Amino acid sequence: MESMRVKPVGTANLDKLESAADDPRRWEILDLSPRRTHRRRRMTTTPGMTITRIFALPPEVETLEASAASEGFNFMTRLLAEWRSGANRFGQPGECLLGAFEGGRMVGIGGLTIDPYLPAADVGRLRRLYVAPSVRRRGIGAALVDALLQHASGRFRLVRLTTDTQAGADFYLRCGFSQVDDDSATHAKPITGALAKTQPGA
């Protein structure tokens, strides 16, 4: 996927956020193209916060895994196990793994893969999205989804996902996904033309 640039859009309703810097609509996607010579590549920027494509897991991922496990989520444990075994390192065409960093510390993560539940190679799956509890409600989750969908627009016609919590379902509806009745997905979003931005607040 080639480099791309997304200009910041409006700043309405910023009173709903803790600060203007937390509005994902003001984050600028600088570059999504992979370069394997770099472990981390800065993609988005806002004061004190970046979203970066990662090719090696930083140490903080274990802190996120422990936090997720304490909340009853095991998908971060699966991410670590699959990465270490080589079963899934988000390296197939169109795939990526992103980290959200604040002050150089990873506070969120999310990935995009080819959907393993469908035979079509042009359907992606949003996976392993997690934001540390201490930085939630600041738009980080929404910004991660935006960046993943931006990446998906160069390869996939549809992105699907599964969530098993009501909070997750509500979040993905705000991000522009629709609920679907499918054994292998709960939500889906067509990728067409210009990317529709998610709403802040995740």
Order of helices and strands: EEHHEEEHEHEE
- Give the terminus-to-terminus CA distance: 27 Å
Task: Return the structural class.
Answer: alpha+beta
Chain-averaged pLDDT: 79
The total beta strand count reads 8
Secondary structure elements and pairings:
Blueprint: E1 40-46, E2 49-54, H1 60-70, H2 75-85, E3 96-102, E4 105-114, E5 123-131, H3 140-152, E6 158-161, H4 166-174, E7 178-182, E8 185-190
Parallel strand pairs: 5-6
Antiparallel strand pairs: 1-2, 2-3, 3-4, 4-5, 6-8, 7-8
Structural notes for this entry:
Strand 1 (40-46) and strand 2 (49-54) form a beta hairpin. It is globular, with a radius of gyration of 16 Å. It has helices spanning 60-70, 75-85, 140-152, 166-174; strands at 40-46, 49-54, 96-102, 105-114, 123-131, 158-161, 178-182, 185-190. The protein is of the alpha+beta class. The chain has a single domain (14-190), classed as Gcn5-related N-acetyltransferase (GNAT) (Aminopeptidase, 3-Layer(aba) Sandwich). An eight-stranded mixed sheet has the order 1-2-3-4-5-6-8-7, sandwiched between helices. The model is unreliable at 1-42 and 194-199 (pLDDT under 50). It contains four helices and eight strands.
